[in-house]
Automatic annotation (TrEMBL):
Keywords: Signal. It holds the Pfam family DUF2385. Residues 1-29 form the signal peptide. It comes from Kaistia nematophila. The lineage of its organism: Bacteria, Pseudomonadati, Pseudomonadota, Alphaproteobacteria, Hyphomicrobiales. InterPro entries: CHP02301 (IPR012645). This is TIGR02301 family protein.
């Protein structure tokens, strides 16, 4: 378990490094089908508040979870053949973090918020959706670099 002030484990760093590599991979060619469901298990937790025992990068991690959720919806909608890549990345981060049930619920809630926020607005790929994808990929890369540079081992 990660405590405030401690660096996150090697497996978290690896999961975040995978995210950095994904945006440039051939898996991001634009052909595919829209839509799998968001990550299950969010429970009733909402909000991005960090608990007393959360690591110092918690807000960044929750934002990254929201970005992964948005990409999980938008990328397949816009033709990418990656029905579960982003959800799988979220699962890997959760496994590496091994959060408490409450913290897990907050992180998953952010993933689901990212997914559902776009699912309620976009039914087809639009120029605005493509712009959102580009911006979220850049922001996700930046967050990943920042977290691994500051807290990685």
């Amino acid at each position: 378990m990660i405590r405030p002030g401690h660096q996150f484990g090697r497996s978290t760093a690896i999961a975040l490094a995978l995210l950095l590599g994904l945006a440039g991979s051939p898996a991001f060619a634009a052909d595919g089908n829209a839509g799998s469901s968001p990550v299950a298990g969010a429970g009733a937790a909402t909000g991005t508040g960090a608990g007393a025992a959360d690591p110092p990068y918690e807000q960044q991690l929750q934002r990254l979870a929201e970005i992964l959720g948005a990409l999980h919806y938008l990328r397949p909608l816009c033709g990418a053949e990656e029905p579960s890549v982003w959800r799988d990345q979220m699962d890997q981060i959760l496994a590496a973090e091994d959060p408490t049930p409450e913290r897990r619920a907050r992180i998953v809630s952010q993933f689901n918020l990212g997914f559902s926020s776009f699912a309620t607005v976009y039914r087809t790929c639009t120029p605005a959706a493509l712009t959102a994808i580009e911006r979220y990929l850049l922001e996700g890369k930046k967050l990943t670099r920042d977290i691994t540079a500051r807290y990685g081992r």
